[in-house]
Amino acid sequence: MSELDGLLIRDLRVSFDGFTAVDGVSLTVPSGDIRFLIGPNGAGKTTLVDAVTGLVRATGSVRFGTHELLGRPVHRISRLGVGRTFQTATVFEELSVLQNLDIAAGARRGWAILARRRRGVPDEVAAALDTIGLAGHAEQPAGTLAHGQKQWLEIGMLLVQDAKLLLLDEPVAGMSHEERDATGALLETVSRDRTVVVIEHDMDFLRRFARTVTVLHAGRVLSEGTVAQVQADPRVQEVYLGHPVDTGSAPSGGE
Ligand SMILES: Nc1ncnc2c1ncn2[C@@H]1O[C@H](COP(=O)(O)OP(=O)(O)OP(=O)(O)O)[C@@H](O)[C@H]1O
């Protein structure tokens, strides 16, 4: 797929009261990629995603497909197919899985269409239920789902909104091994016709599921490439371990 379908960030800068949290970042994430964004605490990962989704003011350029995102309000960026999850799942706990997905789908359809009485489960909702593996839990209140299932429901809510760029903030934090595996498989499925950017500290998950990796440090891109390339980069080892290593072994952790 063409890079033009993906995310193009050029010279992105975000400052808070004179402190530069994102300092001239350029990134290209082609459609179909699963890009992991890693870096020590305070590297600027969340701020970068905040800038892409319109939550903080930034300078430079963020293009998704043919659209410039910088300067647009949050809801317009969302309408352009940019979806995001946060570290804590934000589902409607009292509503069923199906109702959560239906509301998310309705947000895209618009109130006029939402107000029409529909029979049965809309196609995109049924498809999302299958993709996120919750078809057997459709009627269950979201609040009673397991931790991992809530994260998958949130991803499903982005799918029914037809998000083409998914920005996921630590999606496997607090998950069991089985839930991590299932989440990795889910990312592989959704990335077939979407662009996926994952902020993650879990290095084992990264090794297994990242297609490409960007390492941020102090608001700048420190290193970029495949998992193997980034692991072998002495600058990355320095940041994670405090010193370069000879063996080419992986960074031991992000915290
Ligand atoms: N609203 C804000 N006002 C002032 N400083 C901020 C604000 N948001 C973030 N920062 C600062 O910007 C820097 C980057 O923060 P950010 O949360 O983007 O890092 P991060 O890489 O996501 O870190 P973590 O892995 O801990 O989530 C930090 O020094 C943080 O304190």
TrEMBL record:
GO terms for molecular function: ATP binding. Residues 7-243 form the ABC transporter domain. CDD domains: ABC_Mj1267_LivG_branched (cd03219). Pfam families: ABC_tran (PF00005), BCA_ABC_TP_C (PF12399). SMART domains: AAA. It comes from the Bacteria. InterPro entries: AAA+_ATPase, ABC_AA/LPS_Transport, ABC_transporter-like_ATP-bd, ABC_transptr_urea_ATP-bd_UrtD, BCA_ABC_TP_C, P-loop_NTPase. SUPFAM superfamilies: P-loop containing nucleoside triphosphate hydrolases. PROSITE patterns: ABC_TRANSPORTER_2. Keywords: ATP-binding, Nucleotide-binding, Transport. This is Urea ABC transporter ATP-binding protein UrtD. The lineage of its organism: Bacteria, Bacillati, Actinomycetota, Actinomycetes, Micromonosporales. The gene is urtD.
